[in-house]
Design the sequence.
């Protein structure tokens, strides 16, 4: 039985979506540096074109199968049995679309706020988005790793060149944390490659079974890469720094798509490759998730910096996602995937909103604001929608995602579910508290007379509101895409033998 | 007694190279423009490269062998010397040492390396090594009026002579044990006479490791490298950090894999600490450097450590990975040095790391190239440096050295800090002084070749891997 559905759209759609931004970046290098308007419009043109060309993925997606679709497969490095192998399924489709949408929004939101090295900025944005699409659609571990690492180069520059005052510290911390995780995964990848008889083919690798002890080792090797990216407690500390210092577009990329790479990695690699180890490690993963949810939520309550607060809220929300994923039941995993998209939309939007106000006031201190609702009513309503979505108000997408992950978490482990629910309460606390301080209370004289959002900003942010409500009101349309894939994934986990779920014993086993 | 002429086929490239060096020496007497010599050397070296085709075989009673292994290394040397000449033309006139001997010496040094790669006899090996070393000593001190250059040459010479003594001691021990200096015969003698447990053999092997360790600048025999690399003319530093290092690996591979084949486990025990120390000292000390030439010196020590993994593996896959690594390293390191040389202008040294501040603003294109080389040296895809490291790690893991690879990747992360620091200076700081660059066609050509190589090998490494594997068929 053929395991994949080849691409039959008449053009290599996934390659196009990955490499069109790269071509755009090359075109940008040819444009004169002084002609900033042309640079921006060209970047926007390529981003929009990429998005439009990625839409057939959504329209022509076959929702009835778990198989990889739109597959492209060519020999690449035959001496190492490496293929150029692309394809997407129910897990990755929305992440690819999220990436193509985000690149447009990133360009729009940076239109006036990036003033130095404009050309390099848009080149970096396009390259990052191309590479991240590559991460989500690679079906060859080697190809995956290339994109996974290549993405670091432009991202290093985005944070380090156009970031805030403490940007150099933040970007180096980001790069070093990520690299440590990635190289450990690389060792794991190579080990797996030889064990499976010299293949990087993900479908072939996931069809094999591996000895339990090896699974445990490799689970942790891959975990180191994915956990840093997610980021899970206790390796989350790079994120607040990176988010805070990054320019708005950088924060949006980080929040919307980059950190999804970690959660995606768990779903695509850790769980199907090492099902037994995953099962054995569920208690550890759930514990870390719950700690992230509650701890990061509490940290949010004491933040004085707008971006830092949202950054910590990201850590907390990503905790829900890992909770759902490692609940290993269909509600949890589907909720986790949906919540990845929700978080991308909502947190991305919140960072864009902060960018809008930061462009006007150049301060991120919460104390510098107050009564903004009077000065910028349209802005206040936009922010309100995303705040409520972040809180998880029914009717918004945040509710569906959080509800499903909590349901999954509760089914898997009652205590974890109960504790995570407290996270929702804390989340409501800090988000509403933030909204109150910034938009109501006494009017701060600094905000008097600020111009409200202009059309460009509204165009950049409005599409996200549509998604907030669309997913919030009619999530079935999105969940339909995932059912077969998630079921297939869980089947793989359930078939695998269960090992003693005793951490002490598991660790002792590894040591022995 | 009949005297038969030896078959000169296998030595054709070396003969051509010798002739080329001598022709240059004579042309120098008449040539007014020294640029002519550079052009002549590049054309000549291309000819030498072409003469390598079909030159395989052994000659001089089995003392000299031309096989795939030696040809691959000769290719590395010839690429290195062409790039070194390209980056030298403008630079040596800025340094006011535009003498014709420069080109002859650099070719003679390359000749020495070629002989080393082809040596099937320890005496020939020693001859090649000394030819290479003596020429390089002079080149290191080529800026006579600069005290640092003098220091570089003297240090290199003293420690080099020291290492030669170790090599000779090792050779004499092995000769005493087996009665031969033929690398291939040594192996059969050792197994026939059951010498593999003999302490004198282990001692001899250790001396070889020490001598070659000097040449490849592996810790703890790296002491000369930072001072020599800093003081020597930058073009020679570039040349030294690639050519003699690769030559050292060539002889290390042949002697250890063939002559000492029966004591693989023992020499792995000697080389593993060398590798770990090189990666450790190279990467950690590089963190503290303020001079880019010194930083690249320590980085080259670290890279020797990575390439050593390929030898430690002790199989053909390992050797192929080591050879691929050295080829890639040649391109990325020469590229990085080409950028360093570009910053050297009349009256401005440009070798401090702070000189790179704001380079992306004043010279965006140059900064972008340096960015590529730095990421490649770190080993981040899609650059060639990643392929090199990956291949070495793959062969090591396949041979069961997973723990060693774990050590290597951790040091590789540490190295990211100092390579990325250069990028940080270029892109994230404002220029303090207006940095000019020395524009020259040859320099641009060198940068073009290295950049294209680093990116193309990074994305399509297949042909290089195939070439390295093919070079080892029958090794």
Sequence:
């Amino acid at each position: 039985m053929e395991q994949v559905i080849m691409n039959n759209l008449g053009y290599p759609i996934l390659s196009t979506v990955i490499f069109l931004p790269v071509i755009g970046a090359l075109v940008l290098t040819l444009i004169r540096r002084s002609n900033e308007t042309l640079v921006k419009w060209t970047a926007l043109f390529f981003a929009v074109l990429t998005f439009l060309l990625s839409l057939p993925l959504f329209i022509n997606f076959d929702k009835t199968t778990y198989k990889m679709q739109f597959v492209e497969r060519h020999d690449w490095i035959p001496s190492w049995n490496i293929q150029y192998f692309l394809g997407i399924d129910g897990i990755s489709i929305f992440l690819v679309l999220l990436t193509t949408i985000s690149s447009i929004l990133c360009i729009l939101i940076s239109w006036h706020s990036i003033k130095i090295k404009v050309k390099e900025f848009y080149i970096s944005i396009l390259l990052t988005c191309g590479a991240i699409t590559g991460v989500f659609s690679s079906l060859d571990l080697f190809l995956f790793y290339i994109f996974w690492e290549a993405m670091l180069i432009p991202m290093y520059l985005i944070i380090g060149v156009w970031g805030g005052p403490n940007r150099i510290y933040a970007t180096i911390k980001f790069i070093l944390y990520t690299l440590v995780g990635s190289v450990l995964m690389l060792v794991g990848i190579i080990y797996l490659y030889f064990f499976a008889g010299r293949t990087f083919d993900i479908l072939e690798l996931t069809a094999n079974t591996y000895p339990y002890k090896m699974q445990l080792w490799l689970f942790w090797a891959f975990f180191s890469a994915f956990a840093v990216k997610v980021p899970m407690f206790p390796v989350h500390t790079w994120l607040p720094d990176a988010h805070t210092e990054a320019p708005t577009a950088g924060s949006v990329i980080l929040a919307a798509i980059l950190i999804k790479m970690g959660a995606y990695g768990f779903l695509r690699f850790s769980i199907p490759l090492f099902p037994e180890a995953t099962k054995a490690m569920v208690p550890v993963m759930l514990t870390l998730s719950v700690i992230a949810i509650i701890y990061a939520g509490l940290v949010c309550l004491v933040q004085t910096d707008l971006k830092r607060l949202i950054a910590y809220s990201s850590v907390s929300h990503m905790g829900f996602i890992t909770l759902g994923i490692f609940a290993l039941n269909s509600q949890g995993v589907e909720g986790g995937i949906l919540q990845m998209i929700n978080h991308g939309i909502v947190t991305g939007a919140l960072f864009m909103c902060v960018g809008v106000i930061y462009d006007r006031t150049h301060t991120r201190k919460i104390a510098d604001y107050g009564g903004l609702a009077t000065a910028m009513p349209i802005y206040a309503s936009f922010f309100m929608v995303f705040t409520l979505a972040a809180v998880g108000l029914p009717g918004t997408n945040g509710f569906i995602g959080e509800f499903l992950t909590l349901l999954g978490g509760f089914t898997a482990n009652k205590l974890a579910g109960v504790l995570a629910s407290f996270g929702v309460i804390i989340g409501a606390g800090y988000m509403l508290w933030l909204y109150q301080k910034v938009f109501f209370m006494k009017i701060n004289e600094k905000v008097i007379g600020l111009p409200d959002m202009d059309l460009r900003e509204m165009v950049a942010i409005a599409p996200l509101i549509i998604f907030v409500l669309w997913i919030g009101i009619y999530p079935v349309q999105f969940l339909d895409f995932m059912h077969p894939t998630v079921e297939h994934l869980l089947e793989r986990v359930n078939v695998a033998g269960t090992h003693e779920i005793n951490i002490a014993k598991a660790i002792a086993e590894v040591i022995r | 007694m009949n005297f038969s002429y030896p078959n000169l086929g296998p030595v054709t490239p070396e003969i051509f190279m010798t002739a080329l060096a001598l022709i240059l020496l004579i042309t120098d007497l008449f040539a007014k423009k020294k640029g002519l010599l550079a052009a002549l050397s590049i054309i000549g070296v291309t000819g030498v490269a072409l003469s390598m085709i079909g030159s395989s075989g052994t000659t001089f009673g089995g003392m000299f062998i031309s096989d795939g292994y030696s040809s691959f290394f000769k290719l590395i040397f010839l690429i290195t010397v062409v790039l070194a000449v390209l980056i030298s033309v403008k630079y040596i006139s800025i340094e006011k040492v535009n003498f014709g001997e420069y080109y002859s010496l650099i070719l003679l040094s390359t000749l020495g390396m070629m002989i080393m790669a082809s040596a099937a006899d320890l005496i020939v090996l020693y001859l090649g090594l000394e030819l290479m070393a003596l020429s390089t000593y002079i080149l290191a001190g080529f800026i006579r009026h600069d005290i640092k250059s003098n220091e570089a040459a003297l240090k290199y010479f003293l420690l080099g002579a020291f290492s030669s003594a170790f090599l000779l001691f090792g050779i004499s021990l092995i000769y005493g044990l087996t009665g031969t200096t033929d690398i291939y015969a040594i192996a059969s003698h050792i197994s026939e006479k059951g010498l593999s447990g003999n302490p004198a053999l282990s001692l001899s092997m250790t001396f070889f490791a020490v001598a070659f360790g000097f040449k490849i600048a592996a810790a703890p025999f790296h002491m000369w490298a930072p001072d020599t690399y800093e003081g020597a003319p930058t073009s020679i530093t570039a040349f030294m950090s690639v050519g003699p290092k690769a030559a050292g690996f060539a002889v290390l591979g042949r002697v250890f894999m063939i002559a000492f084949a029966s004591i693989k486990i023992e020499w792995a025990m000697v080389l593993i600490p060398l590798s770990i120390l090189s990666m450790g000292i190279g990467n950690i000390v590089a963190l503290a450097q303020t001079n880019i030439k010194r930083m690249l010196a320590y980085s080259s020590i670290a890279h020797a450590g990575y390439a050593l993994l390929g030898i430690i593996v002790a199989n053909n896959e390992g050797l192929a990975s080591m050879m691929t690594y050295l080829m890639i390293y040649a391109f990325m390191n020469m590229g990085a040095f080409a950028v360093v040389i570009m910053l050297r202008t009349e009256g401005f040294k440009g070798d401090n790391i702070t000189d790179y501040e704001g380079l992306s603003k004043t010279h965006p294109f140059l900064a972008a190239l340096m960015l590529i080389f730095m990421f490649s040296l770190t080993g981040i895809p899609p650059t060639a440096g990643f392929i090199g490291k990956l291949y070495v790690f793959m062969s090591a893991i396949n041979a069961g050295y997973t723990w060693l690879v774990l050590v290597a990747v951790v040091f590789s992360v540490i190295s990211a800090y100092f390579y990325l620091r250069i990028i940080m200076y270029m892109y994230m700081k404002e220029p303090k002084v207006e940095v000019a660059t020395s524009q020259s066609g040859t320099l641009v050509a060198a940068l073009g070749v290295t950049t294209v190589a680093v990116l193309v090998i990074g994305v399509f490494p297949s042909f290089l891997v195939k070439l390295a594997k093919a070079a080892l068929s029958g090794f």
About this structure: Residues 147-178 of chain B form the longest helix (32 residues). Chain B is about 75% helix and 0% strand. Residues 25 and 261 of chain B are 42 Å apart (CA to CA). Strands of chain B lie at 57-59, 64-66.
